[in-house]
Each structure stands twice: as structure tokens, then as C-alpha cells.
Amino acid sequence: CNNRVHGSSFAHRGELRKAKRIVIKLGSAVITRGDECGLALGRLASIVEQVAMLQNQGREMMIVTSGAVAFGKQRLRHEILLSQSVRHALQSGNGQHKDMSVPVLEARACAAAGQSGLMALYEAMFTQYSTCTAQVLVTNLDFHDDEKRQNLNSTLQELLRMNIVPIINTNDAVVPPPEPNSDLQGVISIKDNDSLAARLAVEMKADLLIALSDVEGLYNSPPGTDDAKLIDIFYPGDQQSITYGTKSRVGIGGMEAKVMAALWALQGGTSVVIANGTNPKITGHVITDIVEGKKVGTFFSEIKPAGPSVEEQTEMARNSGRILASLHPDQRSEIICHLAELLIERKDEVLVANKMDIEMAVSAGRLPSAMLKRLSLSLEKLNSLAVGLRQIATAARDNIGRVVRRTRVAQSLELEQVTVPIGVLLVIFEARPDCLPQVSALAIASGNALLLKGGKEAANTNYVLHQLTQEALSLHGVREAVQMVSTHEEVEDICRLDKMIDLIIPRGSSQLVQEIQRVAKGIPVLGHSEGICHVYVDADASVSKVIKIVRDSKCDYPAACNAMETLLIHRDILRTPMFDQIIEMLHNEQVKIHSGPRFASYLTFSPSEARSLRTEYGDLECCLEVVDSVQEAVEHIHKYGSSHTDVIITENKETAEQFLQQLDSACVFWNTSSRFADGYRFGLGAEVGISTARIHARGPVGLEGLLTTKWVLRGEGHTVADFSENGSMKYLHENLPVA
């Protein structure tokens, strides 16, 4: 329910979800086919479906439609051609032949012929969704005459009260041709359906006006020009920053008319979005996406935010990132070392902010204990972070511009493959503020620009840590290379910036990673959706190693993605002292055991059976299952694991090597805890995440995983023609030593 007092429009896109009364304006280009003769039925059907769905949610929907002229034109052309062909047939006996061309049709006549058919079509479509419609034809005079305007208002109010969708159009059979702009004293004249929709939206105190046409929205210069950029949010004071292109392919309302109408509606308290209703990729959900607050088209807002937009932040980060990449390696190291120093020097500031976040999370009661642990920072954690950052600072001295391959292609023609930054990274993390300085340091070391999108649970901590990061970057004038994205920004909208962001790294729950992988269109995602790690205890395992490794893998930090979730036991170990010791240790550590189906079959009274063998518990819980051999263990892990980290405990080297070679996981360990799957423990300094992908980086991803390469070819006027049959040069392709 929307309790907003009408008179002030919504400030942010996210608030559009609260819109109760919505006007949908369908431009001629949306309604009509490309030949402008007849309707785009498929497009119209998908729009009707969305409007009906929103109406059935309890919203009050109104449609301002074009299309009567096009519908009538199709009908009249058909009638004229039919009558001409009849006359032609009658006259052909006399040897008379007349031109069969169709005369130019007058628009008002077309509207008169098409209006009833258009309405009948709407009625038939909405009936499929048990939604009733009503036709309302208006003219400019209906708004200028107070009595008529009040009658129109009361009619529409009554229709909405009865859950009917009013379908409004100008009475094109009687309206005069459009006149020059005659807007006076804040009254907008009805020259086209844009101004009609705006006038109607304000008159009916609508919360939202969605104007659909054949352009994506408002651009800072005419669409199609090289520098044209879609404007996400348009403010009343921004008219000077844009230029207008031509009007729509059909209809009489150009973009300037749309902007004038939108600003007039905005001034009257109605929020406005101008979007494309003809794009087949989005037409089926364009209206519902707008109402859900997604970044579609141009949103008109009266309130300009204090900070830059996410697009502007991305541009700032990229520009500053390029300077960062060009710094001397020692300068990048100095920035990271300075950040490590600031973490310790300003520890009180960080911990006070973190305490505020924890207290708010506890009082809200929404965070599970595992996430609360991740949210919490301590002096010990800050010291550990500082040590990790100094490791990264050391590694930062020789990574960018490192030659990984050199080839003498021909005489005086040498090719080098050198390391370079990926570009702009977007790291999305939940309640884990320690992630911020880690990934910032790795981005700085690798010369990458960085966008950070933290969870609101850690907003205070993240703010302080980001301030420290930018303070460190200021040491060498690259403060803007690391940007914190506002919590107002929807993750899905940021993930659509495929022309601005080069790599997305989600850090958080499997649900977060899966959601990012789903919505990231055209941007690679580095990460893993789940951490279902297995420890397999072989028949030849040492009991002392088993107890140590299983305890550490499960109990050291149960919320970590590299914690053990499933314990696989060789069948021969059942009912042995070793098995009893394992169970006793897990019991003492208060680990809840969920039995797999095979293990449960061996027991008279089994623990609670696992709901799924593919479960990431993230707490002091694990699944216990039985297998007959190492081969069966490998097959089980391939079927139920997540290709993250898996461990074998055995004294049999041959069995261990079989496990290590056959298992297809990012990390495979022998006689060590799964908790070693960590960038810091691998000596990477820190990690941006653990990847289970098959290409690019895999396993714990540190500095190397944030670099790509480019090819540099140095010659002396060489051309491909030099190497033709008649040319003077031959290919050598000699591998040269890398300095």
C-alpha cells in the first residue's frame, strides 16, 4: 500500500515498487507495426499481460493509447482495395483499366474507422486475464472546461474503484491538427499523447507515468551518435546538458515533447519513466521491471543525490585506475603499506563503527550466527589483515608489465606477451567487512580500478574502511581508483553495466553468487556458488591425523567456504576404535551429524538423516556418509561436491595419488586440513575469492588472478607482404628467454 502524500514524486527508483496508481502511455511506435499500417499484436499482447498482472496485484492501472489511426488506415486500405478490385472486375468487360493505387488517407477518417476495432482488440486481450476495460475518448477542451474535467475525473475514479482499466485516447476523429506550443501559466496543452498522459496523470494524482516509445530513454545527445549515453536519472535542471534528435518514426511527439510532458507531470507530483516498448528482448517485462525499480529507461527525479551516479563512479574509477597502473611498482607498494598502517593507527575508529553494525544486526535479529561471526572485527583480525596487506605490497613490485613469453617472429621483429590489469573490477560482498581492505590492496597491487558494493549490515564499518583506503590512495594522487557504490543501487542494475565493468567477484553466500551469475549479462563472474568440501577417511588412514584434520576442517571456522561439510568414511572403518574416536571428537565439539542414506542403513538408531547430500551447512553441522573405496569417494564428490576443496586422509601413497589425479576440484589435498584453501595460507597475501571456474583463475585467487595479458610486437617497418612467396623475409618463431 502506498501512503505517500501526492504532491511529491518518488526520489529513487526503488520506491517505484510503492506506486499504487499507474498510467501507461503507449506511443504510436509501440502500438503499430513497422509499416505503420496495422498493429504489432505480439508486442501489444505482452504489454496487456503486464498491465493485467499489476492490476491483479491491487494497483490501479490506466492506459493512454495511440493506434486508432494505424488500425483505421489498415482497415480503410483493405476496404478501398476491395472496392477497387470489384469495380475493376465489373469494368474489365468494357476494356477499361484504372490505376489500383491507394489514395492518401485523411488521419481523422482513419481514427474514426479504427477506434472501435482498437478497443475491441484491447477488450478481447484483457478478457483473457479476467480484467475489464472501458473506453474514454477526450479532447483538449475536456481539460480546459472545469465541468468537463471534473466529469472526466469522477468517471475515471469510479472505473478505478470498480477495478476496471480505463483505456484513454484523444478523439482523433474530431481533434484539430496540432498547434504550436501554447502552454501558458503551468497548463500543458494536449498536442499529442505524451501531453495527454502527463495531464491525465496529474489530474488523477497518479504515482507513476510510464511512457513507452521506440527509444531506450533520454540520451545526452541524439541516439546513434558516437558519444550518446543513455541518461539513467534526469533532473529538472539538466535540460541544458542534452540535445534532441528527431521525433519517433510515427506519431507527433518528439523526444523534446516527451521531456516537456514528463517534467510537467513531475512538477505535479507524478514520477515518470521514459522507456523502450519495442525492444523484443525487454518488451515482455519492461513495465514490471520499471515498477520493480530496475534500471530501465530514464527515470525523472526532482531530488538530485549528493554523490555521483554509479556510472560516473565507474568512469572515475577507470580513469584513476589507468593512472594507478602506470605508477612505479614501489609507489603501489607504498599505498598498500600505508593502508596497512592506517588499519592499526585508526583501529579504534574501525572497531567503534563495527560495534555499531553488530549491535544493529543483533537488535534486528535477522542475521544468523555464522554471518554475525563474519561481520565481527577484532584487534586480532585487524593485525592479521595488516600482515596480509604487507605481503601483497611485497608482491606488487613485479607483476604489471612482467614478460611471460618472448618470441622472435622474424629478423628485427620481436613479440612479447606481458601482464596487464583486467580493468574495472566489481566486488560484491555481504557481511564481511574484512574483505574490503583485502580486495582493495589486491586491486591496487594489480593496477585495477575497483567498485565495492557492501552489504548494508556492515555499512558503518565499510564506510570507515573505504575512507582509509582512499586516504592511502591519495598518497600518489589516485584516490578515485577505489569507489564504494551506494546501497541504493540495485545489484542487478550494476551487473548490467557490461560496457563499463570487466569482471565481477561476488563474496558471500551461495545464494548471492548464484544471483550474481544469473543477472550478470555479458560480464564474467569469478567465484564459486557453494563450498561443499569433503574429507575422505581412507581405510589406511592414521587415527591421529584423522582426528586433527577432521576437527580443524570442521570446527576451526565452520562458516568459512573451505570448512568441511561432508565426512566420507571408508566402510572398513565402521565399528572400529578410530570410528568411535571420530564420533566422540565431533560430539565433544558439539557438531551435529546428519547421516547419509548409506550410513543410516548401518545403524539401528541413526542421527537425523541429511535432507540432501549437497548441503553447505556453514555451522557446526556436517553430513557423514560411507563409501566402499577411494574410487567411490571420488565419484561421490563429483556427484555431490561443488569443485571447491576436497581432502583425502591416508598413509597409502598410491591411493592418495589416485585421489589427487582423478578428482576434478579446484583444490585437492592429502593429509592436510581443508582450511588451507586460502590465499593468505597459500602465500598469495590475500585472496579476492575462491574460483571453481574452468578458465582464467581457479582455486584461491590472489594477485595473479587479477591480471590478464596483452601482446606487444616491435618491428622496423615490417608488412605481411614481406613474408609472401615473393617477399624477402622468413618466419623464425624462435622462443627467447624471458628476462
TrEMBL record:
SUPFAM superfamilies the record matches: ALDH-like (SSF53720), Carbamate kinase-like (SSF53633)
NCBIfam families, alphabetized: P5CS, PRK00197.1, proA, proB
UniProt keyword annotation of Acyltransferase present: no
PROSITE patterns for the chain: GLUTAMATE_5_KINASE (PS00902), PROA (PS01223)
Assigned keywords, A-Z: Amino-acid biosynthesis, ATP-binding, Kinase, Multifunctional enzyme, NADP, Nucleotide-binding, Oxidoreductase, Proline biosynthesis, Transferase
Coiled coil: none
Keyword Protein transport: no
Domain Aldehyde dehydrogenase: 310-594
InterPro entries, sorted: AceGlu_kinase-like_sf (IPR036393), Ald_DH/histidinol_DH (IPR016161), Ald_DH_C (IPR016163), Ald_DH_N (IPR016162), Aldehyde_DH_dom (IPR015590), Asp/Glu/Uridylate_kinase (IPR001048), G-glutamylP_reductase_CS (IPR020593), G5K_ProBA (IPR041744)
Pfam families: AA_kinase, Aldedh
Protein name: Glutamate-5-semialdehyde dehydrogenase
Family: In the N-terminal section; belongs to the glutamate 5-kinase family. In the C-terminal section; belongs to the gamma-glutamyl phosphate reductase family.
Pathway involvement of the protein, from the record: Amino-acid biosynthesis; L-proline biosynthesis; L-glutamate 5-semialdehyde from L-glutamate: step 2/2; Amino-acid biosynthesis; L-proline biosynthesis; L-glutamate 5-semialdehyde from L-glutamate: step 1/2
Catalytic activity field: L-glutamate 5-semialdehyde + phosphate + NADP(+) = L-glutamyl 5-phosphate + NADPH + H(+); L-glutamate + ATP = L-glutamyl 5-phosphate + ADP
Spans traversing the lipid bilayer: none
Gene3D superfamilies: Acetylglutamate kinase-like, Aldehyde Dehydrogenase, Chain A, domain 1, Aldehyde Dehydrogenase, Chain A, domain 2
Domain Aspartate/glutamate/uridylate kinase residue range list: 20-276
